[in-house]
Amino acid sequence: VQLVESGGGLVQAGGSLSLSCDASGCTISGSPIGWFRHAPGKEREFVVAVDWSGRRTGYGDSVKGRFTVSTDNAKNTVYLQMNSLQPEDTSVYYCATTKGALYSGTSYYTPGDYDYWGQGTQVTVSS
To answer: Residue 23: CA atoms inside 13 Å, Cβ hemisphere, count?
Structure first.
């Protein structure tokens, strides 16, 4: 299993960024893919989870209404569209997955639920 994030960068508050997670070895329809973020001095925070079909999603409270996750099975890619970004969204963003699991739209909120992680991509939001 290999996960590679991209799309991070520097953006002003109120702006948007789109992250990508290119996956291999794990694109089974019902498998969960999670996005987490980790800022210095803070615990890793759940952002969103989705299954590869894209039909089931669950968002963290801090990003609801601003972030949108989607999947492209043909490209084995998961996207995270981030709008209305704020300085507190500054973090390293990671995608993660696990094998042998089916995502129902609940659970998979914690890092321990996932076995495979990408290297992360930095998002910096300036005020």
So the answer is: 30
Write the DSSP symbol of residue 36: E
DSSP string, 45-68: EEEEEEETTS--EEE-TTTTTTEE
Q: Are 98 and 113 a contacting pair, CB within 8 Å?
A: yes
* Per-residue pLDDT tens digits for 24-52: 876 667 789 999 999 999 999 999 999 98
Half-sphere exposure of 7 (CA within 13 A, CB side): 18
CB-based contact 50:73 (threshold 8 Å) = no
Q: Residue type at 39?
A: A
Six token digits for residue 107: 């659970």
